[in-house]
Structure formats: C-alpha cells, structure tokens
Amino acid sequence: MASDSETERVVRISKIAGRYLVFDLQDVVYLRRHHNICAVFVGTMPQNPTQNIFMGLPVELLAAEASVLLNKGAAYIADEAVEHLSRLSAMDETGRKAYLQSLKTQRRKAQATMDEERAARSAEAKARHLGAKAKKQQPPSEPLVAEEPLFDSAPQPEFSPASVSTPTPRTVSAAPGITPGTSAGLIDGCTELTAASAPKPSPLFAHLNSKGYFITPGLRFGGDYSVYPGDPFRFHAHFMATSYEWEEELTMLDLVASGRLGTAVKKGYLLGGQRPRTDGGDGRGGLVDGGEVRAFCMEWAGM
C-alpha cells in the first residue's frame, strides 16, 4: 500500500527547449502508478549510448499530460534555463553548504547500500564454499568386490590441499562520488507560467485520464492518442482517439477512413471534443476551462 508521502508527492517537470521532461526515476514511477501517465523515454542508456531502440531517462511528457498534472496540483514546471541562471547567481554560502551536505547524505546512503550488497554476496560465497568442502570430506562408498585393472598403469600423483590455489580477496575501493541525476536539490522552485508559456491543454485527454484510461501517443495507429483500459504493459489499446473542436466540420471521407483504419488495427475509432462554455455556464463543470466533453466511438463493420 502506498504511503501518504508518496500519494502527496509533487513532481518536478523540467521545461527545456519547449519540451517537458522528468528526470527523477521515483517521479516516473509515481506518475505511472497514481496518475496513469506513461510518457515516453527519450534518453540514451548509459551502458549502450549508441543504440536508439531501448531508451532511458528522462521521459518526455506531452503538453496535454503536463497540463493535466498541473491542474491536479500533482506537479510543477521549472524552466531550467531561467532557474539555473537566477538560482546559481543568487546562491549564498548557506545554500551552498546545504547542497554539499545533501550530496554527502546521498553518498552515505549509497555506501550503506553497497555494503549490504557486498555482505550478502560474501555470505552467499561462504555458504557455497562450506557446502563444497563438506561434500569433499564425505568418505567415498567402497565397492563390494575389489576391481583389479587389466593393465598396469602408472601411479597417479596425489594432490595435497596446500597445492590448491585459493583466490585472493579483492581490495575494496572507496565509494564513488555521487553524480545527481536531477538538479532538484539545487533548484527546487517552480517557474511562474504565463498563458503563452503554459502547456496547451487537451480536453479529450483530460476526460479520458479522469476515467482511468492510460494514454500514449497514437501516431502509429493514425490518431492523436492510443487509449488503453489499463497499463500498456498488460493491455492492448482499445481505441485510437482524435480530438476535434466542438464546431469543427468533419468530412465523411475522414470518418470512413478513420473508422476503417481503426478496425484494421483491431481498435475502435474514438473522437471527441469539448462544448464551449457560455457566459452563464451550462450547469456542468468542465475539465479544462470549458463545458462538458463528449466522446463517440466508431467501428467499421460489413453490413
């Protein structure tokens, strides 16, 4: 069961060159587990940086995903270029010492984890050695009838236990230095967003996310989003979704093509939009500064 501190976690979203990135692994796990946000890995793997098939941290959020998290109060956005210049230039001696102390704390935790793993490996190796030694000390079972060789053979040399080479223990080096994966310990403030710099919301995305669906980019299936009933690690996508404006005209050719494409990839074609909110209101609270969101699902079937 998740702890209260985990459920009340506020995720730091780094805005770099107009992209919304999350660098902290615990934040990535939290978003997927508690907010159905999968995002996309865009970083290279440290052990194999030249490949481009399996990606690593950070993850990149869609603008719609970042907007949903901001509206929920589950995240804040930090403009890295602005915050680094302003915070580092204004840092005093007290802040510098606090940051260095946080690095020392992380190093002690890493050292404790390494010591535990080393002790576990040592105990396992010792148990294997004792088991092999006990097996060697067991007397061999003698045959009932002595067997005599047909041909004379040269006597076999006897090996004494002293002749067996024992591995020399490796010297344990000092703990490596800590390289933080994020700058949250150094820059922990959020950036004030204007209407132009805020992530663009998607009412359809917010509507589907509020219903518990997992959503990923849907370009490979011909839509804006791929919609999953559960975690994509366990389920296939049930819908390919496209967002429209409320008064946007739809051609019959687009509907037929999208419906047939959705059926061809074994998915329903979902389209939706948000009703504009009038000055007096329509009596229904919208998810993203508007009225209700309506969604429809289409399937192409032979008559």
UniProtKB/TrEMBL annotation:
<feature type="active site">
    <location>
        <position position="228"/>
    </location>
</feature>
<feature type="domain" description="TSEN34 N-terminal">
    <location>
        <begin position="11"/>
        <end position="79"/>
    </location>
</feature>
<dbReference type="GO" id="GO:0000213">
    <property type="term" value="F:tRNA-intron lyase activity"/>
</dbReference>
<feature type="active site">
    <location>
        <position position="267"/>
    </location>
</feature>
<dbReference type="GO" id="GO:0000379">
    <property type="term" value="P:tRNA-type intron splice site recognition and cleavage"/>
</dbReference>
<feature type="active site">
    <location>
        <position position="236"/>
    </location>
</feature>
<dbReference type="Pfam" id="PF26577">
    <property type="entry name" value="TSEN34_N"/>
</dbReference>
<feature type="region of interest" description="Disordered">
    <location>
        <begin position="105"/>
        <end position="180"/>
    </location>
</feature>
<dbReference type="InterPro" id="IPR036167">
    <property type="entry name" value="tRNA_intron_Endo_cat-like_sf"/>
</dbReference>
<keyword id="KW-0456">Lyase</keyword>
<comment type="function">
    <text>Constitutes one of the two catalytic subunit of the tRNA-splicing endonuclease complex, a complex responsible for identification and cleavage of the splice sites in pre-tRNA. It cleaves pre-tRNA at the 5'- and 3'-splice sites to release the intron. The products are an intron and two tRNA half-molecules bearing 2',3'-cyclic phosphate and 5'-OH termini. There are no conserved sequences at the splice sites, but the intron is invariably located at the same site in the gene, placing the splice sites an invariant distance from the constant structural features of the tRNA body.</text>
</comment>
<protein>
    <recommendedName>
        <fullName>tRNA-splicing endonuclease subunit Sen34</fullName>
        <ecNumber>4.6.1.16</ecNumber>
    </recommendedName>
</protein>
<dbReference type="InterPro" id="IPR059049">
    <property type="entry name" value="TSEN34_N"/>
</dbReference>
<feature type="compositionally biased region" description="Polar residues">
    <location>
        <begin position="162"/>
        <end position="171"/>
    </location>
</feature>
<dbReference type="InterPro" id="IPR016690">
    <property type="entry name" value="TSEN34"/>
</dbReference>
<feature type="compositionally biased region" description="Basic and acidic residues">
    <location>
        <begin position="115"/>
        <end position="127"/>
    </location>
</feature>
<dbReference type="GO" id="GO:0003676">
    <property type="term" value="F:nucleic acid binding"/>
</dbReference>
<dbReference type="InterPro" id="IPR011856">
    <property type="entry name" value="tRNA_endonuc-like_dom_sf"/>
</dbReference>
<keyword id="KW-0819">tRNA processing</keyword>
<comment type="similarity">
    <text>Belongs to the tRNA-intron endonuclease family.</text>
</comment>
<dbReference type="InterPro" id="IPR006677">
    <property type="entry name" value="tRNA_intron_Endonuc_cat-like"/>
</dbReference>
<dbReference type="GO" id="GO:0000214">
    <property type="term" value="C:tRNA-intron endonuclease complex"/>
</dbReference>
<feature type="domain" description="tRNA intron endonuclease catalytic">
    <location>
        <begin position="205"/>
        <end position="271"/>
    </location>
</feature>
<dbReference type="Pfam" id="PF01974">
    <property type="entry name" value="tRNA_int_endo"/>
</dbReference>
